[in-house]
Amino acid sequence: MKFFILNQRYFVMTGVVVLALASVILATAVDVWFWVPAVIFGLLVLVGIHDLYQNKHSILRNYPISAHIRFILESFRPEIRQYLLESDQDEIPFSRQARGLVYQRAKGVEDKRPFGTIEEVYKSGYSWITHSVAPKHITDTDFRVRVGGPHCKQPYDCSLYNISAMSFGALSGNAILALNKGAKKGGFAHDTGEGSISRYHREGGGDLIYQVASGYFGARNEDGSFSEEKFAITAADPQVKMIEVKLSQGAKPGHGGMLPSAKITAEIAEARGIPMGQDCVSPAAHSVFSTPIGLMEFIGRLRDLSGGKPVGFKLCIGHRREFMSIIKAMLKTGITPDFIVVDGKEGGTGAAPVEFANRVGMPMQEGLTFVHNALRGAGVRDQIKIGAAGKIVSAFDIARTLALGADWCNAARGFMFALGCIQAQSCHTNCCPVGIATQDKIRQRALDPGDKSERVARFHKNTMHALAEITGAAGLTDPRNFMPYHFMVRQKDNEFVDGNEAYPYLPEGFLLQDTELPELHEWHSRWERASAETFDPKEIPFGPYKRAQAIAGEKAAQ
């Protein structure tokens, strides 16, 4: 008995061998149809023998044949969880409720729900809009903001909701075409991502935000360096409305990328301006500049080369001092970007190492609040528009983001849902089940650009309509008038605060004043350590104990 207990892991293998032998005997003695199970069980025996002698998976050696059940179940675990186990509010990374809202608005079907909210309204983190007893009715939902600072010659009237950066290469040609056609129909902008402008962008005819990243795709020399001549040609395209320099992205801030040569098709090579047969490298850092002043000078050059189109940059906030160094470079050079896009670390269309996806970068709400207040503190907020991205799929998401300081919002995954994304999380495998994030021609055929472009445009239209409704409910006539005090935030299970307390607007020009505001000591300290000449710190900042000593010394001196 002990022998059988110790070797029960081989019972399946033994049973398969017995069934194979029995099938062979029955096939020769009784009926030839028994050769069918004989072949099946024979193949399983071969699998079991392979399992016993392979050395990659210990579990297969100990449990030949039967251990494959583990790998089969693991392969569709996300689908089982998503369809059978996940609740409407489980955010992994988007809740079923959020996805369902996008699907409904993209299809133009009923998006109302009965029987009250399923949100836990008394739970920490819950927030809500304060409504007015004198609501407004808004008929024009084509909400726009003009982007273009004092040095811009071709300002752009940007929709308050646009498609965030997703490259051709990461997305299929049909997906890019559907997104861009949808942007054309709906009158909003489509960010190209770092993969430059493809034939699918051009065929769609929609407004483009041309992203210039560290690989300088669409504007590079053969050695990968930046080409002013090629950039000027690309930027002159009438479809290009704005130029965005990517410093970092929320999915993997501070991390470069590499597209293996095996995945580079002729169309990708054409769009990016790279050779076939070579790995395509996107460095972590830019080669054109390495200092804050260098960044501002590069932005000035791009604006001149583009004929005065709006030029800005995108980043996920990391070291806050470095962003203040950029602001100091603005003040020193007199060059200001026309816009800044704040990407939250919750961004995620780009595949990233788990450590980067989970633990690197600042979430959007905190990053946006910091950027907005830093620009206010330096007295340049009125010259620069701010875009924001990070899990923004509903009208409430847009309204809250505008209240925190953004002038417009971008979304990537929201528009992917509008295309039919089912959140399979297989974007990096080239096996996207709905033909969005793949270069497989057969899988791409599943996505009809005509039908899906209608969904993209419809999702945008219905979301803007919902934004108008909650704007009117707050007693406002334009969503750009949302302020933090229009929101309440529950910080503890039994306490809530006004949005002004949770996300305050700091005083205009406070960083430039001679007198330091004691309650903003950390802002002043960080500002003092920032330099327009370098991203490197001047000194190591005080720890909590030394900082307390310094503050006590200043008070004693007063």
TrEMBL record:
GO terms for molecular function: glutamate synthase activity. This is Glutamate synthase. Belongs to the glutamate synthase family. Residues 162-476 form the Glutamate synthase domain. GO terms for biological process: glutamate biosynthetic process. The keyword Transmembrane applies. The chain crosses the membrane at residues 9-27, 33-53. It comes from the Bacteria. InterPro entries: Aldolase_TIM (IPR013785), GltB (IPR024188), Glu_synthdom (IPR002932), YerD (IPR027283). Pfam families: Glu_synthase (PF01645). Keywords: Membrane, Transmembrane, Transmembrane helix. The keyword Transmembrane helix applies. It comes from Thalassospira tepidiphila MCCC 1A03514.
